[in-house]
Design a protein that fits this description.
- This protein is α/β, with parallel strands linked by helices.
- The protein has helices spanning about 40-50, 70-85, 175-180, 195-210, 220-230, 245-260, 270-280, 320-335, 355-370, 385-390, 390-395, 415-430, 455-470; strands at about 5-10, 20, 30-40, 90-100, 110-120, 125-135, 140-150, 155, 185-190, 210-220, 240, 265, 290-300, 305-310, 340-345, 380-385, 410, 430-440, 445.
- The chain has an 11-stranded mixed β-sheet with strand order 11-10-9-12-19-18-13-14-17-15-16, with helices on both faces. It has a 6-stranded antiparallel β-sheet with strand order 1-3-5-6-7-4, covered by helices on one side.
- A hairpin with a 4-residue loop joins β5 and β6 (about 125-135).
- α4 (about 195-210) packs across α13.
- It is elongated.
- Residues about 1-15, about 55-65 and about 165-170 have low confidence and may be disordered.
């Protein structure tokens, strides 16, 4: 479901908590109302399911052609305006004559406007003109509607719309990600201290999948012992022999700084040990931005992949650090195909409070975006988690926002809340995950010992996307 806004010249500014109609006697020729709504791909899928067709039955839907909507979808917006705005509750539709002038496509922002043309008192019959335009101002639907207007004024609480979730394909995200990167040649990755079975197997799996050409940076004897114990084949792989994990982190950073590796991958050493080598003043891997971690998640309970940040590196970031965290997440969203990501700055509440620093930071980040200090995405906050991911929750609280209910990026207040949120989504929300560090000159694949094989492969696939992007646009 998509956000809508309403302007109604027949009444004072609306109270989002109430529905008010206009009785026949209150209506005058010239009164008008309008509704704006963005047509989303989930809208198309839901309508197709209800109408007994499929999205594939409609024109378009290829990589170069957007999905085209059933024309009658636009007339549903007309019914919504008539039934909730003008005349409003108590209205009965008698008939309508519509002309469909142009196709409607996913992503179109439609504005439907109705205006009273004539009143017939005998049956409380009202004739209204109908005009629907897209975001370019082009007419897509026009015509007339005839209704029986209500005899009496009606005012009632606005009901919360039900939350309708289509299967988002959260369980096949890895397959789609691998298909997306299938045409890209593998990148050379320094795998730092893969001295346990999960991390070594992950590197070998990613190698077999055609994603990486691994350079194993570790004590050779220890590496060979792990491989022998678990039946892993190291033949043909380059090994950088180093005495211990600290030396492995330093050598991995050197390989990345010299261009001998286009990404780093964490093995069985601690995250702090690897990242200390990456951000060291002499590493050659630092950029003007602070490094931050992004979880890319997809759950069957949300209609698109999304990013949670920062849940692994920055413990209690201040405002400048949060600004870089947002910039890094926007850059990742661009790389995975979201041209203008919607960024929700999370807090416990959706109002700014001087007693809650997270809400003050959220407001400041949004103002920074307004002034061009953060570019490439649409920011809003503070938003509580439910408002960020649920349109119904946002509407219940009267929140009008271009981000609420459809966030692509969730920016958490601190590492603890972010880590708990991400892990809850993975273990209780059935989310598939990948993890990557942004803000350095090369992507850093940051995995956990508890990560699944699919998660590790997905992280390598994202690093592959980023590395190829960095060849043309270095961070």
């Amino acid at each position: 479901m998509s956000l809508y806004t309403v302007s109604d010249t027949a009444s004072p500014p609306e109270n989002l908590a109430l529905l008010r109609n206009h009785s026949f006697d209150e209506l005058s020729v010239g009164d008008s109302a309008s509704m704006e709504r963005t047509l989303s791909t989930p809208d198309l899928k839901l309508f197709a399911a209800l109408s007994g067709t499929t999205v594939a039955d409609e024109a378009g839907g290829s990589d170069d052609t957007p999905l085209i909507a059933h024309g009658i979808w636009g007339s549903m917006l007309l019914s919504s305006v008539l039934g909730t705005r003008l005349p409003g509750p108590g209205t009965t539709l008698v008939g309508q004559t519509l002309r469909f002038l142009a196709p409607l496509a996913a992503g179109d922002r439609l504005t439907v406007r109705v205006q009273v043309l004539d009143k017939q008192a005998a049956q409380r019959q009202v004739t209204l003109s109908v005009a629907c335009t897209n975001q370019h101002g082009a007419a897509v639907i026009e015509g007339q509607a005839t209704v029986h207007a209500p005899a009496h004024s009606i005012e009632r609480p606005r009901a919360s719309l039900p939350e309708i979730r289509l299967d988002a394909g959260g369980r096949d995200g890895l397959q789609r990600l691998l298909a997306h990167v299938a045409g890209l040649p593998p990148i050379r990755v320094a795998v730092v201290h893969p001295c346990d079975e999960p991390s070594l197997s992950a590197a070998l799996d990613a190698h077999r999948a055609g994603l990486i050409d691994p350079v194993l940076v570790a004590p050779r004897a220890r590496l060979q012992a792990v491989a022998a114990e678990h039946g892993l084949d190291l033949s043909g792989l380059h090994i950088e022999d180093v005495p211990h994990s600290h030396a492995a982190a330093t050598r991995g950073a050197e390989l990345a700084a010299s261009g001998d590796a286009e990404a780093l991958m964490k093995g069985s050493l601690h995250t702090d040990e690897l990242m200390a080598a990456v951000v060291a003043s002499g590493s050659g891997l630092r950029t003007k931005r602070r490094v931050s971690h992004c979880f890319v998640l997809q759950t069957p309970h949300y209609p698109r992949p999304f990013i949670v940040t920062d849940a692994a590196i920055n413990l209690a970031p201040d405002l400048p650090q949060k600004a870089d965290i947002v910039r890094n997440a926007i850059a990742l969203a661009h790389a995975i195909g979201v041209p203008e990501p919607k960024v929700a700055i999370l807090a416990a509440v959706e109002t700014v409070s001087p007693h809650m620093p997270a809400t003050l930071d959220a407001a400041a980040l949004c103002k920074m975006a307004d002034r061009g200090q953060i570019a490439g995405g649409v920011l809003d906050g503070p938003l509580a988690f439910d408002n960020a991911v649920s349109m119904a929750a946002a509407r219940t609280k009267g929140i009008a926002s271009p981000v609420a209910g459809q966030a692509d990026i969730l920016v958490v207040p601190d590492l603890e809340s972010g880590n708990m949120l991400a892990k809850q989504l993975m273990y209780m929300g059935e989310a598939a995950s990948a993890g990557i560090v942004m803000g350095a000159k090369v992507p850093v694949i940051l995995t956990s010992r508890a990560d699944s094989r699919a998660s590790r492969i997905a992280s390598c696939a994202i690093a592959l996307l980023l590395a190829h992007r960095y060849r043309n646009t270095p961070p």
